[in-house]
Amino acid sequence: MSILSVKNISKSFNNTNVLTDINFDLTKGEFFSVVGPSGCGKTTLLRIIAGLEFATSGKILIEDKDASDHLPQKRNIGIVFQNYALFPNMTVFENVAYGLEVRKLGREKITALVDSVLEKVRMKDKSEKNVTTLSGGEQQRVSLARVIVTEPALLLFDEPLSNLDYSLRLETRNEIKRLQKDIGITSIYVTHDQSEALALSDRIAVLNKGVVQQIGSPREIYYTPKNFFVADFIGHSNFFNEKESSELFDITGIGEDEMLSVFPEEIIPVKCTRDCKAKINDVQFTGFFTEFLIECKGKIIKSMMPSAQSTEVFSAGEEIDLKLAAKEIRKVKK
Amino acid sequence: MNFRKKLSPFNILLLAVILFFITGYIAYPLFSLIRESFGSLQQSLSSIASTGFNSITNSILLSVITVAGSCVLGVSAAYHFQYRKFPLKNFLYTLLLIPIAMPPLVGVVSFLFLLNENGLITKIISLIFNMQSVPFKFEGWTAIIIVHVYSFYPFFLLFTSSALQKIDANILDASVSLGASKAKTFFKIILPQIIPSMIGASLIVFMASMASFSAPFIFGGSLRFLTTEIYSAKINGDTSLASMLSILLTIISMLFLILLRFYRKRNTFETRTKGTAKLSSFLLLKDSGIKGTIAVSFLALIIMLPVLALLFLSLIPEGSLMRNYFTEPFTISNYLKIFGEAQFFEPFANSIKMSLIAVMITVVIGVSAAFLITRKKIRGGDFIETFLSLPYGIPGTVIALSFILSFNTPTFFTAFISIVGTFWILPLAYAVRNLPVITQSSISGFNAFDPSLEEASSTLGATGSRTFRKVILPLVFPSILSGAMLVFINSVGEFVSTILLYTFSTKTISVEIYSQLRLYNTGAAAAYGVILFLLVMLIVYASRKTIDKSF
After folding, report:
1. CB proximity list for B414: less than 8 A, separation 6 or greater
2. Which of A226, B36, B62, B70 is deepest in the core (most CB within 10 A)?
């Protein structure tokens, strides 16, 4: 049984297609991400699944039943919103109890459930606080608690971490993963941050201009990108055509309509004394990694090395050679 | 949300009520007015021409002077408050805003008691210099302009203050640290950013001044103004001339309303600052200490003087006005009379009843319309909003006249009863006058409300009506309440349309103040004025408290 089936969903606003023929199925407990640049239609897709918008064509099946025409109230779906959408006129407790009150559970049962979920998200001690006094991270945890307490069949996340600062984002990301595994709830996670999607998901759908580019596990998406867009968006790859590949790396066999795709971490700058092929334009030390922008035959190549591993120090303006450290040769369609 | 939602039967009922009200009480009266003005067009035109269009030019001139005076006073006060630090700042700011809450007639009467021949200041000057005749006369242009500036300058103070507060202080500090003088910073950086607000305030004050009736009516003497001319034409039975003048006044007013809406659409500089904008400029802020307090206190005293005169005269015994009333002992007999004698209490009860009814009508119509327009995105929402804002551009005198012309015969809209001369015409007129207030405050309340809250509620399983009761209403309530408060205080002291619509049994406080004044019962008039003033202040205070507490 699949928890959710998205069948041939298309959506257009004013004659422009926002989504074109989207298809996928989710199995129970799966964590599924939809990733793509802003404006690719991922939030619209999420809203169609939630019933907050209707598709122009196609079907949404929830637990094998057609829910395409159901109102959001009838779908048994929870959403964690980007801006948290906590009710500012209620306390933490009241916010979390809201969905349970709708389901007409008894007072005592509601209190017990709310208390236990607030415990899970470590917000028990703030349950009587007004939500407007909480920090962003705390608000997001309450918003998560408010949804999971109703035990929805499907949990939707709409860029839930984008309003948080970096360290809080990592912390909340771990929290989401932990809770999702604990409860085993099927989830769809929408984000523009590919590292978030890679870290959290069982499967990822890459979306561009309303069209699904590829669906697969994080490793599949990363190591066997189906096309230029996926390789670029997920792996920030460098691309070389047939001529460049053979000149730089002695790699042949790249077809007319193909490109060689090389990750930044697979290109290593090496010291050079004469007949240098390339020049370092810029060095950026970011802590764990050192990033290089290398100019080579009029082309800018991205390279990246774990700082601890590099035995040699390079500086901007230095002439260098390039070494390819790829285990395999990846070709993508243009 | 990008699609229109389906309307429930209840929504359709609301829509029907709104359309009924718009047709019956806004569109139909305007139509009657236009029809009446064509009654004897020729005669009316020659009658207006015979006075050399005096009333029109006078009204416009008065408004221009009022705008200029209010602007100078309001903007300089706002600047002083924004960039000076001194003790009692917040308290003094509140005092300076008092005229905005004062019913127009109470303002006029207060000045009368301060500066006319038996006024407080006049008496004091006569006593000090032992004069036999009054030292000056408070009437005509000077009197009207002083009262107007007094009543309308708070618009400039409020608008400019809020514009000044929105200026990111870092910009000012940047200017000063780049070497600009304070004057240069003011003219090059601050002024361009507050000019849009000043234009907004100018348009509002111009419209208010054009529509003003009380001050020209009491102090105008033989001067002709559009509002007072309409009133006298109506009293003389020349409804056709009255209608003609009304239409002229409305056209001028509407022109400004359109300008105002246009200006609001393409509003102001939006300084986008990430994080919290710094509020006060370190380099510009000057601690002027107690000197600042004294300077502003002087202005606050001038603002409070008319109120004090009103209070003072309400406490002296009836009939002692011509004597040296400073030697008379204070008495509360005037107040006892109002609360003790039924005939004196009735206007008080009438005003409150009528205002409450007006609040109820406006809340039902305005909030439903705002709900349907913003949350249901109904077709023709813009049209409904425009119609509900229309009365803002129609002066009270004109609304009253159009009501008389429309409802002196039984109509479908009034359940086939002629309501002229009845109790009901007054609250209905108040409601129409105040519809724009509550519609606008509700619309901005609904707009400020984050749509994802509604979506969160529905995905958590709540029905539409539950979402409305538990989430939308509590969040929009403060906006509705502040709108309702404004409707109440505008209605409870309403004079302009009341004076055309009341009968002996439906006297309101303002009408009673006016008739006591004509009977030379100064004490009673002043006591009514004080009660009205306190009532308004109490409501402003109470609703502020409720609004603050609801978050």
Report:
1. B24, B407, B424
2. B70
User: Which positions in chain A touch B2 (Cβ < 8 Å)?
Assistant: 13, 53
d(CA B335, CA B349): 15
Cβ-based contacts of B466 with chain A (< 8 Å): 102
Cβ pair A147:B551 closer than 8 A: no
Interface contact flag, A75 B459, Cβ < 8 Å: yes
Q: Do residues B173 and B281 lie in contact, with contact meaning Cβ atoms separated by under 8 Å? A: yes
Q: What is the pLDDT of residues B121-176, one digit of tens each?
A: 888 888 888 777 777 788 889 999 999 999 999 999 988 988 888 887 777 777 77
**Structure ipTM over 0.95, yes or no:** no
Q: Which of A71, A98, A132 sits opposite B460 (nearest CB)?
A: A98
| Residue in A289, A237, A285 with CA at minimum distance from that of residue A264 | A237
CB B55 within 8 A of CB B223: no
Chain B CB contacts of A53 under 8 Å are 1-3
Chain centroid to CA B518: 25
Inform me whether the pLDDT recorded for B456 exceeds 70. Answer: yes
Under the banding of pLDDT at 50, 70 and 90, the label for residue B284 is low
> Can you tell me whether residue B485 is helix, strand or coil?
helix
- Check residue A150 and report its DSSP letter: T
Residues of chain A in contact with residue B453, where contact means CB-CB under 8 angstroms, are 85, 87
Give the span between the Cα atoms of B453 and B468, in whole angstroms.
Answer: 11
**Closest CB to A85 among B1, B452, B461:** B452
Type of residue found at B456:
A
Nearest to B109 by CA among B75, B154, B151, B73: B151
Q: Tell me the pTM.
A: 0.79
Mean pLDDT of chain B: 84
Q: Which of A25, A27, A44 is nearest to A36 (CA)?
A: A44
Is the pLDDT at A236 greater than 50? The verdict is yes
Contacts of B452 in chain A (CB under 8 A): 81, 83, 85
Interface test with A, best of B454, B459, B465, B477 (most A CBs within 10 A): B459
Q: B479 with B445: CB under 8 angstroms?
A: yes
What are residue A139's phi and psi, to 5 degrees?
-60, -40
